[in-house]
Amino acid sequence: MGECAAMGNEHIFVRKIGEGFPIVMLHGFPLDHHSLLPLEQCFSQHDHWQRYYIDLPGLGQSRDGFDIRSASDVLKALSDYLTEEFAETDFAIVGYSFGGLLASALAAQYGDRIRSMFLLAPETVAADNARTLPKKTVYYVSDLPHDAAEQEVAAYRATAVVESAENFELFKRYILPGLMGSSENEAVRYLAENPALAKTAAEYMSQYRRPVTIVVGENDTMVGYEDAFALYRTLQEATYVCLPKAGHTLHLDQAESVQCVFRRWLSDLSQQLR
């Protein structure tokens, strides 16, 4: 199974793993590609999937070379890269949080060429104050390490639903790299101030006919689960899964459940491509 890291379209960092049908992995805000790497456990060396773990324009290792002042700027730079990379090729998309919002817009641009989508805790309402959110709930499993850095603990507890030493270690490995790298990034400030795209997720996906799987956490206080359900109800061919005891990092909180749904998505995609 091959793996390489490269700058695509001059400035976009892409970590490619495996060979075969391309799956574009789009992370959330203000994270980087590490946040989706837990899903690597769902692939085997016998799979025929090439995963494109992208650092979104302006974020992660793609922060230089772009003038990002809004979510629309990210979408434009990303679509330029995809058009160049997949000129004649179909592909699939995994979109996490903000990556899910971008995926919805790409559905309008590429249509049936995106053979399927897996949306993990997708952002469907850009404005924080317009989202339908559950009350904060935390399930304590075990104490955090006594030597844990105060800044890391604060970042973790901002979204933690299942609080445990094991979950904290996963957070530090997959989520924290993007968070720490965004602290002095001017693009992050612009994106926080201008998070909306030209249309809503439902408007972008109104003509999309390919399968969509949406997985959300019942305790997600960042984007919630109800707004994603509203999107689900507008789609032509969709699956909606809401997991209990799971927040915005649901693929860490309920890893086995998310991976089970993801493997099913891969299996269905494989059937579709035959």
Q: What's the number of helices?
A: 10
Helical content (DSSP H or I, runs of 4+): 25-40%
CATH topology: Rossmann fold
Write out the strand line-up for the largest beta sheet, numbering strands in chain order.
1-2-4-3-5-6-9-10
Report strand %.
Answer: 15-25%
Protein name: Alpha/beta hydrolase
Organism: Bifidobacterium tibiigranuli
GO molecular function: hydrolase activity
Keywords: Hydrolase
Which secondary structure elements does this structure contain, and how are they paired or packed?
Blueprint lengths: L2 E6 L3 E6 L3 E6 L22 E6 L16 H15 L5 E6 L1 H13 L3 E7 L18 E2 L9 H8 L4 E2 L1 H10 L1 H6 L4 H8 L7 H4 L7 E6 L8 H7 L5 E6 L6 H4 L1 H19 L1
Parallel strand pairs: 3-4, 3-5, 5-6, 6-9, 7-8, 9-10
Antiparallel strand pairs: 1-2, 2-4
Describe the overall structure.
This is Alpha/beta hydrolase. It comes from Bifidobacterium tibiigranuli. InterPro entries: AB_hydrolase_1, AB_hydrolase_fold, AB_hydrolase_sf. This protein has 274 residues and is of the alpha/beta class. The protein has a single domain (3-273), classed as Alpha/Beta hydrolase fold, catalytic domain (Rossmann fold), CATH 3.40.50.1820. The protein contains 10 helices and 10 strands. It has helices spanning 71-85, 98-110, 150-157, 165-174, 176-181, 186-193, 201-204, 226-232, 250-253, 255-273; strands spanning 3-8, 12-17, 21-26, 49-54, 91-96, 114-120, 139-140, 162-163, 212-217, 238-243. The strands form 2 sheets. It has an 8-stranded mixed sheet, with helices on both faces. Helix 3 (150-157) links the parallel strand 7 and strand 8. Helix 1 crosses helix 2.
